[in-house]
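ZP: hey, is the N-acetyl-beta-D-glucopyranosylamine complex queued? I don't see it on the tracker
AM: it wasn't, my bad. submitting now with these inputs:
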Amino acid sequence: MPVTSSPKSKAQAKSAALSPEAAALQQSILHYLKYKLGRDVESATRRDWWIATATAVRDRMIERGLDTYRAHRAGNVRRVYYLSLEYLIGRLMLNNVINLGLLDAMHAALGDLGQDFDTIRGQEEDMGLGNGGLGRLAACYLDSLSTMDLPAVGYGIHYEFGLFRQEFVNGHQVEHPDNWLVYGAPWELVRPEFTQSVKLFGRCEQVFDDRGNFQWRWVDTKTILGFPFDIPVVGYGTKTVNILRLWASKATEDFDLRTFNDGGYIEAVREKAYGETISKVLYPNDKTENGKELRLVQQYFFVTCSLRDIIRRHFGNPENSWDNFAAKQCIQLNDTHPAVAIVELMRLLLDEHGLPFARAWEITTQVFAYTNHTLLPEALEKWSVPLFQRVLPRHLLIIYDINQHLMELCEQRWPGDDAKKRTLSLIEENGHKAVRMANLSVVGSFAVNGVAALHTRLLRTQLFPEFDALYPGKFINVTNGITPRRWLRACNPRLSALIDAKIGPGWTRDLDQLKQLERFADDAKFQDEFMAIKRQNKVDLAAIIRRDCGIEVSPDALFDVQIKRLHEYKRQHLNLLHILALYRRLVQNPDLDLVPRVFVFAAKAAPGYDLAKAIIKAINAVGARVNHDPRVNGKLKVAFLPNYRVSLASRIIPAADLSEQISTAGKEASGTGNMKLALNGALTIGTLDGANVEIKEEVGDDNIFIFGHTVEEVQALRAAGYHPWKYYEEDEELRAVLDWLGSDYFVPGESPNLPAFVRASLLDGGDPFMVLADFRSYCDSQARVDAAYRDPRRWAKMAILNTARVGKFSSDRSIRDYAEKIWRLQPVRVQS
Ligand code: NBG
């Protein structure tokens, strides 16, 4: 082929028209295509393009990362370390490019080569190293930390398999491994020089040092290695690039050669297999914290690697000592999952650095802060004492010492009150003994925060009232937030462009600027533009529903969206009962005047959570009937999109009209999906729970649909004795839909009948989340939604006011709160 006709030569000829930035980007993409992947423009596959492009982008982040590192090091700055067992990052390409300010250059550079950026970035696998809100919050916070120039490092586990991939087979959830690393992970940098070795198991023995001082030694341990991978986290519109450091476990030696030579191949690789098992999979733990040994090992593994890394960094500066450790280093515990860090820091200070107990405790309790993300008792971690003893024998002794100190404090405050001591103790004594990680987290931290105002109030008054009395001022609130870079600018380019045109792009870093949209809320032209964008996003989602569910939906219907983990307290089954009620009304009267609705669900159920899986099956079974019933005449559709993940959320959220936030009051700590949906102009139907309360305060009572029992009413109902059968008997429609669900109408001939299992949980099972108590008020509220949607001007105004008024829920505001109220952390400007 003559050289002049090759696309590359054409590209070179044309690139004269590219901006210098785009031309440089193009050069580096072509470089990686050739020298990293061994391809040219003709032979490159989509995946080659994606890897070459990601690598070119990463280079630009590395340059800034080095500048950041130098600035932080030179200033010996105070840093925060975010310890989290989960990071639900999703795809990174678009956000990295937007944050680097390279979006236009990227489109030009690739377009010039005949490639489409949006197609290429579609090749990226989601990084799904988390279960839900807690992990996604961690990812949003990393984005804000860099954007706000705050010195920070995220620490976590480099799971080989993230949260399972979900498929539906005959409406049932089927789980598959999520092999996100299979085609490589171009964002990562390997850091073998920072490898850590980790001890586990073994026993403790007492020794006397050369001055006759008594000491504990942890001996006969098993050793594994922690091997770090760094993912650069780039701030928006700034030079700061922090890192997320994820630890992979490895065996200390590849295998035992002597055993191998003696013919024991399996034995020889067993150690290696164990070493690698630790970071193999993320626990899909939503229902209960089951006491799996491996999970405790995972927690300890990443915590000790991270602490030693922090200590190494601290002493890397000759001016530093233990005296200024707490002044320079601050560690945030994301839930109790990393709480063993409190004990591990004590162990390092006592046994490896020879500090006395009082001094070690003083330092430790000045370093840690703890975020609580749930009040559900079954989700508060406890580890059985025998398990702790086996895995971390030295740590158990230290926990007993800390507990003794706590009991002395308790005695001073409430002399002779043994009940108080039993409540506060780090060790639960009833039946089998267990270590209470939440109590440990409170005692070992200088600050404890809840994640929404209501949740923090309940934390203080209901979960930890004694601790609140013992440590006045320790409990504070930091309401959660979401990053506007991902959850508006990247996921909804049409709406972002409209907002830019009206008020400029400043909102991307300062979300309160969206308030300026309020003055267009009544402007018919703006309303039309706003709703036309919503409709276009619905057309896009309809195509996804067609592709993934095989269901045809109309973009003119109301898109009613519930997307979140599947859990009884989130009450996807309350939504289902309402769908059944509408379906029944239509069956009885096919002419019924209903606003056409598409019910969109997406949710994963923890693999061991049978009732959650039954709810999925029930929704799918009801959907299969509704979607094909001619009497419904297309007025109702039910689409359960499989494999909910960050990248799917970012397609659903811009297309939602109605956001379902219908948890039992007092159970949802905050919710963050509620914020993302409101930001994109969806109206909330919700209970007064979690951050819904604050969303209502911000958007105003007229722009939200509130229903159901309040926290106080839920408690009063419970105290008076809750009887689900009473609602069944008193409400004819509720009775009818429950019985319908319990029949085999939706699952003819199937055994077991899972919809009937859902019904049983609500009646015989006692309805622990009071679905039946809120059913009627939910239906009434849904009728108000129906009425509001019939008035397009009114609906548009409400939608615009939602977008305009949720600036408070930017994760930049949350991080500012943390930095001021907890971390006392100053921004550091990075110069290049
Ligand atoms: C979740 C809560 C949510 C909250 C996120 C982030 C856990 C244990 N908790 O309500 O259920 O928004 O944490 O704080 O995942």
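AM: back. Residues 46-74 form the longest helix (29 residues).
ZP: great, adding it to the tracker
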